[in-house]
């Protein structure tokens, strides 16, 4: 647990103000969310003709509180309560969905993308040309982690601005691209939450899965987060949180934590437990999604499947560049106390290897 150095008051105010303004200027507006939910409802009406008992749930950044104006909408099409083979059965279902939507005036173009979790990418006509939709099938963990992250986003007002800034900084640095052996956005969100749980002298966040196990760990809970009740901090009034850290303190502390404090060789991140744990411990978790080969450069435990959300970070040369990016970002922000300077950092430069 690191000691938090506060930024000088005047410059802390300026940096905190920059962080908040960046968040306010780039976050998804209520109208954008309303339009996405309306589009989801229109798609559900069409898909329900082919899949009469289906559910269609918004998942990911459009709903978990960490979306911005450029966020696509991810949808999970639930057609059964049993596990499906994503390599075969999910492809068949997505192909049926594609045929269902093919001649609809609303749909401009579609593309089936074959991946570990295959998706149907849909582009739309007016008035939804700005929304791209990715549909997956029976990816129940996406529904659960959306629900969980909604709670974390609402728990403390500082969480969302820090996450939004970190994600954008990582994108500009070239370390938020799983196709190039770096982080997914989901991994970056878990890294921020972990830091706020146990990277400070006074924690900002608890482990919500530890405190509210029944609500958040129910294996049958596949609620869509937009259908849940209010998730404001008033629901968690038994948590003795600390309100003294500014946004500037937290952003600088986050970069310092992963530049200087976190032991990548021995430690693993577990938001589920709300603490650092050993790499050996998380690698031994029993899960159908878990294989020893995936625990390589950095270990970030997925809160529900117990797999490694950072398995995309497999190339040691890229990982060294990622760690250097945290160090450069930390040094730059300590020296300049300026968000614009941080966002203009040179991206990592490597000849990426292919999987």
TrEMBL record:
Residues 15-153 form the Poly(A) RNA polymerase mitochondrial-like central palm domain. Residues 246-308 form the PAP-associated domain. GO terms for molecular function: metal ion binding; poly(A) RNA polymerase activity. Its main location: cytoplasm. The lineage of its organism: Eukaryota, Metazoa, Ecdysozoa, Nematoda, Chromadorea. This is PAP-associated domain-containing protein. CDD domains: NT_PAP_TUTase (cd05402). It holds the Pfam family PAP_assoc. One of its GO terms (cellular component) is cytoplasm. PANTHER family: POLY A POLYMERASE CID PAP -RELATED, POLY(A) RNA POLYMERASE GLD2. Belongs to the DNA polymerase type-B-like family. GLD2 subfamily. Keywords: Cytoplasm, Magnesium, Metal-binding, Transferase. Signal peptide: none annotated. One of its GO terms (biological process) is RNA 3'-end processing. Its cofactor is Mg(2+); Mn(2+). It is found in: Cytoplasm.
